[in-house]
Amino acid sequence: MVLRWVRRCRQSLTSFGSGPAATERGGQFLKQSKKHTKHRIVLPRLGDPDTVSEKYRNNRIRTTKYTLLNFIPKNLFEQFHRTANMYFLFIVVLNWIPVVEAFKKEITMLPLTLVLTVIAIKDGIEDYTKYKLDKQINNLITQVYSRKDKAYVEKFWKDVQVGNIIRLSCNEEIPADMVLIHSTDVNGICHIETSSLDGETNLKQRKVVKGYLEQDSEINPEDFTGRIECEPPNNDLNCFRGFLEHADNERVGLSKDNLLLRGCTIRNTEAVVGIVVYAGHETKAMLNTAASRYKRSKLEKKLNRDIMWCVVILIVMCCISAVGHGLWLSGEPSLPIYEIPDSNGKRMDPVLGGFYRFWSTIILLQVLIPISLYASIEFVKLGQIYFIQNDLDLYHEKTDTRIQCGSLTIAEDLGQIEYIFSDKTGTLTENKMVFRRCSIAGQEYGHEENAKRLETYQDLDSDDEEIALFQRSSYRFLSRHRLSSMRVGSIHRTSKSMHRQSLHRRSLHRPSMLYPSFTEGGGSAVNVAPSRMFSVAFSSPIETDVVPDMRLVQKFSRVSHGSYTHSRVDMPISEIVFISEFFIALTICNTVVVSAPDQLSPKKQWPSVPKVPIKPLEDIKSIFQKFTTRKVTPLHSQRTPSAGSSKTFLERLSDLAIRLPSFGSASSSQTSNVPIEPIVSDHGMNYLNLPQETEGRLPFEPPEPTELSYEAESPDEAALVYAARAYKCTLQSRTPDQVTIDVDYLGTLNFKLLRILPFDSVRKRMSVVVKHPLTGQIVVYTKGADSVIMDLLQMEPTGNIPLDKQRKRIKDRTQRHLDEYANAGLRTLCIASKVMSKEEYEDWLEGHLLAEESIENREEMILESFIKLETQLTLLGATGIEDRLQEGVPETIEKLRRAGINIWMLTGDKQETAINIGYACKLLDPTDTIFILQAENKFSAALVIEGTTLAFALHENLQSRFVQLTRAVRAVVCCRATPLQKSQVVKVVRKELKVMTLAIGDGANDVSMIQVANVGIGIAGQEGMQAVLVSDFAITQFSHLKKLLFVHGHWCYTRLANMILYFFYKNLVYVNLLFWYQFFCGFSGTPMTDYWSLILFNLLYTSVPPIIYGVLDQDVPAEVLLYRPELYKSGQKDQPYVASAFWINMIDGFYQSIVCFLIPYFTYRDTDIGIYSFGSPINTSIFFVIVLHLMIESNSLAWIHTAVIAGSFFAYFTISMAFGATCVLCNPPANPYWVLQNHMSGSLYYLICIITPTVALFPRFMFRVLQRSVFPTPLISAKFFEGRILTQQRSQLGRKSLI
Q1: Mean pLDDT, the chain, whole residue set
Q2: In the prediction, which pLDDT does 758 show?
């Protein structure tokens, strides 16, 4: 039915050409298509008017918000969307009403004007920076074809239009999304670097559209007559749907493999030509450009709640003032002298007067709502982020990467995490896939020698590059020596095909590497090997150097062309063919890009390495006898000896004592059980000895300057290709139509590549369809998760009893081996194949091409086509790949548990692998009782949950029960989980338990989980930067979580919580002074301090100390927080910012304000002191109280704290005396002239300023003393024991250094 629908769509669409006629037809089609489809029609635009393409946006981009004309109105509009600014505006407007005016109109406008101006300047600078960057990008130059000039002409990027044909050269950036129609590569391939989009440094291949591949010369844009129909612009980087219709009405499907994305860079290709389909803001790169996500922290939500309480307190105060003023007016028998009568000469009604006084009191006490707190919080968070980013403990030296902070709003949430959801691969593990074991045709190969190699790598010092290089060379020597010696007595082959691999492989992590070359006299010289311009992912020595299993080598060496010739379809397949097909599948069933180092700099020619004369075999054996210890003994001198040194190079190598696999009993014992006849040479030498024709020389050649490099999209693919290469089944080249491999026992094989079925998370497998060069048959090679491959095998009885028994035996044994691999913590993959007849393939291809040409429901149709092909498979074998834990992961998880954090591991691996890794990283304890929730019994208690069962558990009716069940277990492991299920788990836990969650991962499959969690952390690993780009924080090691949470998280939350509480206290205590004075002035709304002092008190005098306090205060040192993770629980319980702490501060503020008002009041009662003279000692006393209160609350006082506090005192007295002396603050009829100077000339002022703060702060001081001595919290106790803990740690470090 689907295919019939596609055919009808094809018949209903018309064809188009190019040029003016085509443009006219395109316009007619466009009118018709508006009624039926929303697809984009692209015709070649060669400079002529084009009614089709003109309606699309050009390539000009603008990321700025404002223009010169709309900057002021638009910026003000945006700023007044903030509640704080609306509150300020309300106060300003209210003060302009004469009957409720409390201050001078200009003074009330000052705070709002200042805030708006500062923010507008900041926004203007940011927008101007974006404008300059936009201008620079828009004015870049590219080559666009012009029909008028009959050539490619230079145009600015901003002038590029949809339909333009563009020519790009190597290393040139792509200006718009283009469909590739020509490449100078003979295979129609274009390599692009996509690091600007997804952070992946490995090159991607793009293909020329079919129909333009078979061209002898560069395409002439005048001859391009195709019409492109594709989907509307969207932000999906991994999908492109459409088709190109040729002049003969033939349609070719378009996919992401034909699309060059804006922002990518052309690599390794001389020139390409493409036609623009999306330009400017419609390109996928620009559609993916979004502003950073805004997350509200938990503390900010509580802050809003307490601000509402402040609003309630303000309203209560205003109501008291209104009622008091009304009663005051009612109690006056005549018109008060300060009261202005109305127009009729009558006094104001008391009720109306109280109503007016309510609003004027709001103006007077406006500071009670701490609007400036929001600005202070932003400054504090910037300071906290600065110290996080510059923490050396969070810096990774190997990758030269420090922590990245993508969000500036939720740093304090790091101190309140209760649940951590972690990916496994690349997060808990290194994501360095190491080939460990394999099973072929039901026979298991343990690769014990390779396991010993890995143990030696673990003992190596990673910083010792020269020793590491020698070790890699030694292992390669061993593996190649064994492989070469296996050919004794076999068919002679050309030496060139036998010796393709080299002794040394160039380091891809250093700009250069020294290679020793040997001389006849035993001396050494040094040659500089070429290096890649950038590091290739998944290419570390531990991943690439594989020591083969000798039993498997023996069997593989027997394969020949005759092995395939004698193989019959109706008979069981021979083990030799199984082995050959297994390694062929490992080599070609992937998307690995093959490149050589000199491709990146073709003009540069590297000198070849001279051939190496080699010592006799006995000398080499004597060297290997000295390789007995694991540890590497450092050389006493790193200098290169001269050629005339008396000590030979081989003797100098023996100074390096490295444990290598021996030639003796271990290997021979393994081969004794192999059901293959021993291979013996004509001279009676066993397989460990060299053949006669190579006696005295090693069976390999020195490295060639064009050694191949593999660039894989995943570490699994790279590990399998390198494993196959260790068995001399080498991937040589890959083109869109052909894969070339070199099998040492079969020669060079060219596989015609018919189709690639890429991996996806639904199928959990990938396949390639090729034409086998030995049999001429069409073969499908498939690799994927064992959970899906096992269900796709051909197990139905065929009537051929031997064949059916073989299939069943292989499946049962392979399944047993897979379980063993999983129990050992290895990642498992199954390898299978399928032979198709030509008729079967053509029937499938017809339906698949129709699916590719469709635009609507394309993914569903292609998926259905893939599933149809990947059935009735023959199991070849399975692989076990090790992904080792990162350094420090078990210790980190143990400390996270001690901190009260629940840890869930969400992984796509199978159940046994996930459980094994859980034990290894101490997520699971040996004493734990493991309950496994499986689909057969979804209501049982569970700790380990498979993906199929997780779908049931996440159902709406079971979510609550599932979450409550998980609270009763120590840890949860979700295996075989899809990316969507990962995000659903995080979302359900957040919703049901109301807890703070953190999600951490390194790959694209973790993006949704990271975005859903309260805090998302990305690991900057080997799988690109997708997780990093969407994360709130990005780190390089899982172990960095310790300091990020325990230290920075605790400090950020504690500092910010204490600063917020201090702000509430500070504003309340100062506003209360004005409120208490209203009881003595008839609630008239008159302050006892001049207006400027009121503004400067919060704006200048007391603004900086709490910010420094919020950035630098340390309640407990970092060493103690790391030593005692239990201290982290205080943040989980919100202890620094509980409701009781808020109200204690409010009560204390009321008490201190009463003391600061009443002591001066009783001192000056019944005197003729003026209003400002009365307010001056009150203002000074409260200033002392507020600053000294902060010092009492501070947990650490450094020189910067002292300097800031001293600066505040200096600013207060200097500015107040200067303004009082110049009468700048004079607002008639009030006159604060020389008030402070007169007070400071007498002793009473100083006595008030000493007694008042002492009495006001005494309860707070005693409370802290008793709390720290009699009722200490765990944090206070930890601080008291700080000295003992630090001394103990230093002694432990001293003992370790001695060891």
Answers
A1: 76
A2: 87
CA separation, residue 181 to residues 218, 220, 299, 1193 (Å): 10, 11, 55, 70
Identify the CA nearest to 10 among candidates 731, 851, 1029, 586: 851
Check if the beta carbon of residue 312 is closer than 8 Å to that of residue 320: no
8 A C-beta contact, residue 717 and residue 724: no
Q: If DSSP codes are grouped into helix, strand and coil, which group holds residue 779?
A: strand
- Its pTM stands at 0.70
Share of the chain residues as helix, strand and coil, in percent rounded to the nearest 5: 50, 15, 35
In this predicted structure, the answer to whether residue 468 has a pLDDT above a threshold of 90 is no
Q: What is the mean pLDDT of residues 634-653?
A: 36
194, 261 Cβ separation under 8 angstroms: yes
| pLDDT per position as a tens digit, 366-416 | 888 877 788 888 889 889 999 999 999 998 888 788 898 888 788 899 999
Single out the catalytic residue among 177, 423, 909, 1032. 423
SS (H, E, C) 527-539: EEECCCCCCCCCC
Q: Give the CA-trace dihedral at 602, 603, 606, 607, to 10 degrees.
A: 130
* CA–CA gap between residue 369 and residue 363 (Å, rounded): 11
Q: What does the pLDDT average to over 1122-1126?
A: 89
Q: Enter the DSSP assignment of 870.
A: S
Task: Return the pLDDT at 961.
Answer: 86
Between 98-102, 353-357, 467-471, 873-877, the lowest mean confidence (pLDDT) is in: 467-471
Q: Give yes or no for a contact between 298 and 996, defined as CB atoms under 8 angstroms apart.
A: yes
Question: Is-contact 598 530, C-beta < 8 A?
Answer: yes
What lies within 8 Å, CB to CB, of 943 at 6+ separation is: 924, 928, 930, 931, 932, 933, 969, 970, 971, 972, 973
Residues 1034 and 1028: beta-carbon distance below 8 Å? yes
Encoded tokens for 288: 């993916």
742 an active-site residue?
A: no
Looking at residue 114, its amino acid is L
- Summarised one tens digit per residue, pLDDT across range 1192-1239 is 998 888 888 889 999 999 999 998 888 878 776 566 656 677 888 888
Angle between helices 959-966 and 979-993 (to 10 degrees): 80
Predicted local confidence at residue 11, as pLDDT: 40
Mean pLDDT of 708-714: 78
Distance between CA atoms of residues 891 and 875, nearest Å: 41
- Residue 320 belongs to what H/E stretch? helix 298-331
Which residues are CB-contacts of 1162 (< 8 A; sequence separation ≥ 6)? none
Q: Could you give the CA distance from residue 985 to residue 978 in angstroms, rounded to a whole number?
A: 11
Distance between CA atoms of residues 504 and 366, nearest Å: 76
Distance of CA 237 to the CA centre of its chain: 17
Helix (H) or strand (E) holding 187: none
Copy the structure tokens of residue 150. Answer: 């009959």
Cα 174 to Cα 285: distance, rounded to the nearest angstrom: 11
| pLDDT at 1158 exceeding the cut of 90 | yes
pLDDT per residue as tens digits for the range 418-436: 999 988 777 888 777 788 8
* Nearest alpha carbon to residue 1092 among 1200, 1172, 1209, 999: 1172
Report the chain's terminal Cα–Cα distance, integer Å.
75
Tokens describing residue 901:
């954090």
- Classify 1232 in phi/psi space as left (phi over 0), alpha (psi -120 to 50) or beta: alpha
Alpha-carbon distance values, 53 to 41, 48, 60, 245, 707 (Å):
8, 11, 15, 17, 47
Q: What percent of the chain has pLDDT over 90?
A: 25
Q: Judge whether 943 and 969 are in contact, CB under 8 Å.
A: yes
Cβ 1032 vs Cβ 410: under 8 Å: yes
* pLDDT of the residue at 652: 37
Give the whole-angstrom CA distance, residue 1075 versus residue 1104.
25
Q: Do residues 979 and 994 make contact, with C-beta atoms less than 8 angstroms apart?
A: no
